[in-house]
Amino acid sequence: MRYIIGLGSYSQADDSIGLRIVEHIAQNGLERGFEAVSLADEGMRLLFYLNRGTEKILLVDAVDLGLPPGEYRLFKPEEVESRKELKRLTTHESDILAILRFAASLGHSIPPVTILGIQPADLGPGLELSPALQARFDTYLRVALEEVIKGG
Amino acid sequence: MTQNLSINVHHLTRVEGHGNIVVDVKNGKIEKMQWQVPEAPRFFEAMVRGRHYTEVARITSRICGICSIGHTLASVKATENALGIQISPQTYKLRTLIKHAENFDSHVLHIYFLVAPDLFSAPSVFPLVPTHTEVVVRALRMKRLGHEWGSLLGGRTTHPNRVIPGGFAEYPTEAELRNLRQRLVDVQPDIDATIQTVLSVADKLPSFERPTEYMALSSDKEYSLYDGVIQTVMPDGTKQRWPVSQYKSCTNEYVVPQSTAKYTKNKMGSYMAGALARFNNNYAQLHPEAKKLAEALKFKPLCFNPYMNSVAQLVEIVHSVKDSIRLIDEVLGAGYKPEELAKPTKHGQGQGGVEVPRGILFHDYGYDKDLMCTGGNCIIPTNQNHANIQLDLEALVPKLLAADKDEKSIELGLEMLVRAYDPCISCSTHYLKVEFKR
């Protein structure tokens, strides 16, 4: 099974981008040979998708890439170092890179993981995306679908 | 006695959200002792205004990622009460079943990932992987069950989308319910092992006691998680009940300078909500197997030790598994089938109360004739515990000082106290900040 997994907080503007992408996919019946999953802000649940039968995982999330708002990058966990100021593994403020390391230390099978990171413009309270991200929503959706289907 | 002490725990770890512990002692005199909550308000009550009743629970479930099932249930209950929507007995039981899933899932998380590191003298669960591999693997196995149990009923565990006003949008199949039942039977060895793990470190739980008022939903027919009336039990054992519609007169929210979160109180200076409050209020309704565990642990109501909240959670894990097996049997035995959604019959104001893992939760909404929300109010359990945490600290610090504990031990004792409440201060933004390797 392939998964596209959305992470984020729906009530904090652009932090919801990953959730909106996977909800759009699920609600519009765009799942083709993969499953769209919303994990919201409980990143630790990612562990339950790191199964032997998992072919690949695409994570979609707001990421501080040091780029202008709305820009995005596809990257592998091993290509980056976390600069998040988290000393320890917690359950809400989950650092996905730490969770993947945790899973590896427990002997979990780690399938190929790609992250679609999108640079947020606004992380304040709010149920709407910022104009910068809203304007490129279709692009993020296309990139996400191409990436999760690729090689299938 | 310790004469000088300066503790400043900025953003306490292994709690959900941000809270600080600040203690200053000079020449044996306590000059400052505060549980501070610096989180920003999140404006959910404003976000639901002007939304159709079918949208409200989808928004307010986002208040929390851990308790999103409970927020969904409190929200749909408030909406159903406001709009005169009568749910069926099958819906009641399936909602109780998903409530059990959340309690099980969250309690496993708290006991194993947030509390156990203190008891095993580890800073987090990470260092326990090489030394206690079997314990960590077991914890994740149980957590997976909680995740899949909630997902089966709710469509997904985090922000469930099948639980909607009037019933369920989709139903698990009979075969899926039977499979869940078997998994609940099969988890028993993991529960037994969890009990043994807790017993092996139980002597590390501090013996501090401070009598307080305990508030929980209560019912004569069951151990209240999904439904009931408000009940408190006082230190002398007297109990009083109020309808959920009177929640404001029991919570009496107020503001304090050191916290952006509101505090609450009822008859005393503070009250406690959560597993220990439920245990103290509703012990008689626990499943016999859960009571058997409590007896084996010599754990009985009224218990005034807040550190025992984690043990009450363990008792509730047993209760939730056993009661869920009963619920599945009853649902399947009563001609289980998908049902039509119950419809609104009126409009107005309505309240909903449920027990989430951290305690009693209230949602309250008004709706106009077009079934659009005119306003909302949500009082979460962690806010209800802030005053009790503060008063616990004020009682505990002098004892620790008198016992001549060193600063590190005192700091750990205070951190463990706050963690025992399993506070869910906020669902803060979690996004990654990365730098590409060169």
Account of the protein in words:
- The complex is a heterodimer of chains A (152) and B (438).
- Chain A contains 4 helices and 6 strands, in the order βαββββαβαα.
- Chain A has helices spanning 17-27, 96-105, 131-134, 137-149; strands at residues 2-7, 34-40, 56-64, 72-75, 80-82, 113-118.
- In chain A, helix 1 (17-27) links the parallel strand 1 (2-7) and strand 2 (34-40).
- The longest helix of chain A has 13 residues, at 137-149.
- Chain B has 14 helices and 13 strands.
- Chain B has helices at residues 44-47, 53-60, 68-83, 89-119, 128-131, 133-154, 174-186, 188-201, 247-251, 275-282, 288-296, 309-333, 381-402, 407-420, and strands at 5-9, 20-26, 29-36, 163-164, 167-168, 213-218, 229-233, 239-242, 271-272, 349-356, 359-367, 373-379, 432-436.
- Chain B has a 4-stranded mixed sheet. In chain B, strands 1-2-3 form a 3-stranded antiparallel sheet, with helices on one face. In chain B, strands 10-11-12 form a 3-stranded antiparallel sheet.
- Mean pLDDT of chain B is 90; it is low at 427-431.
- Chains A and B meet through strand 2, strand 3, strand 5 and helix 2 of A and helix 4, helix 6 and strand 13 of B.
Main sheet properties of chain A: 5 strands, mixed
Helix content of chain B: 40-55%
Helix percentage of chain A: 25-40%
Mean pLDDT of chain A: 86
> What structural category arises from helix and sheet content of chain A?
alpha/beta
Q: In order across it, which strands form the biggest sheet of chain A?
A: 2-1-3-6-4
The Cα radius of gyration of chain B reads 22 Å
Sheet with most strands: strand arrangement of chain B: 8-7-6-9
SSE order of chain B: EEEHHHHHHEEHHEEEHEHHHEEEHHE
Quaternary structure annotation: heterodimer
Q: Give a count of the beta strands of chain B, DSSP E runs of length 2 or more.
A: 13
Shape of chain A: globular
Q: How many DSSP helices of chain A?
A: 4
Count interface residues per chain for the largest interface.
A-B, 52 and 48 residues
